[in-house]
Amino acid sequence: MYAMANFGSGTTDEAGLRLLYDETCRLCAGSAKAAEAMTGNRVVAMPLEDGPSAGDVVLEMPSGRVVGVRAWLAVMRLGPRWARALSAVLGVPPLLWLAAVGYRLVARTRHLLFGRCTIG
Question: Regarding predicted confidence, which is higher, 23 or 69?
Answer without folding.
Answer: 69
